[in-house]
Amino acid sequence: MIYIALSIFVASLLFVVFKLFDVFKIDTLQAIVVNYVFAFLVAVFVSDIHISLQEIPSQPWFLGGVFLGFLFITVFQVMAITAQKNGLSVASIAGKMSVVIPIIFGIFWYKESVGVIKIIGILLAVIAVYLASAKNDTGSVKTSSLVYPILLFFGSGTIDTTLKFVEKKYVPESNVPLFLATIFGFAFVFGFLFLMYQVVIGKFKFQLKNLVAGFFLGIVNYYSMEFLLKAFKTDIESSTLFTINNVGVVILTTVFGVLLFKEKLIAKNWIGIAMAIVGILLVSFS
Prior knowledge:
This protein is mainly alpha-helical. The chain contains 11 helices and no strands. The chain has one domain. The protein starts with a helix and ends with a helix.
């Protein structure tokens, strides 16, 4: 249980770090790019697979790693913007409720079972993101306030779906650290290209604080995955593990948002959070 607790805590810290970026006026893109440098170095360091760089493109999971690298850098940016503009609770719900996307993929691709309870859970997930994004108790939610949560919802779901598909079909257990290193490496490459574009259009301005922020983000980012992987090695079933982890992150990030950043939650937000928790439970245990 210790690794599950650590996974929840560190994953929740990701949203807190992104919120702090806004407080200290950190350039989010620069920090995220630097973050993947450190995540890549740690992944390479812990990997005991000795393979030359020339052999990596010939691996069956290589193209999947490239695609995931692109998703990692773009969705991480969306996560940061969502946490800053919409709040920690909205960002965590949009990210964690995206678990319904790989579940839907599994129903159609892997012919997994589907029932009324699972369908209800999926519907609750969509409604929860909508309600959690509300800014007032009267009137409808503005479309502009839904853009980033929706992008985060589908982006995170695409990452989970692709990661599961590629790892299950093409990545042997011994190659997992190298596979992760490849993802982190290409996330950095794509992020570097984005920064070069900023240089070309004259919007790039380097500050040392962005480098320091990226270092801390990289540590938190890597260990959020490390602790989750270690939690999977326990005897707890994966559906139970995902349930505990996702519900825990939604609750803890909400607590962080209220206590640390004085985020104000209205009635619709609390209903959305409650529906998110119920939706995760229904989908996971169905």
